[in-house]
């Protein structure tokens, strides 16, 4: 499984239920990597999407503790055990964990690759991604060329579990 996220200098990913920043190149990269694949996300993350609808052209697996929670065109699971059972149907290399904070933290130990867009800025935030730079189980294996969007610099980086 893979993790995919955009983080700021402090590994922050969100504030008050929203992304910190929207960078078109990052969104295009996310779409290119995840289209035709499986994405795992939490209910709160789904509710930040346009019309609160699952991502098109992907198998969306939503983790929600609410046993009555249903989403059209998505698979809803209610526990980690149920999620693990559902994931047996897919090639783990085609599975992307896309957030939010609690989903990243719960599934990070089961992932072997992390595709991280590092944004050179520090935002006000209340949601964070696990800091892979401080985790001895992970190593940065590819640091992309610096790109800019207006006044923001960012890089696409790949981490691998050691």
Q: Which labels suit this protein?
A:
alpha/beta, 162 residues, 35% strand, 3-stranded antiparallel beta sheet, Dihydrofolate Reductase, subunit A
The average pLDDT is: 97
Q: What's the story with the biggest beta sheet?
A: 9 strands, mixed
What is the domain total for the residues? 1
The run of helices and strands is EEEHEHEEHEHEEEEE
Q: How many helix segments?
A: 4
Question: What is the strand content?
Answer: 25-35%
Number of DSSP strands? Answer: 12
Return the CATH architecture. 3-Layer(aba) Sandwich
**The named CATH superfamily:** Dihydrofolate Reductase, subunit A
**Roughly how many Å is the radius of gyration?**
15 Å
CATH topology category name: Dihydrofolate Reductase, subunit A
Class per helix and strand makeup: alpha/beta
The dominant shape is globular
Helix content: 10-25%
CATH top-level class: Alpha Beta
- Unreliable segments of 5+ consecutive residues: none
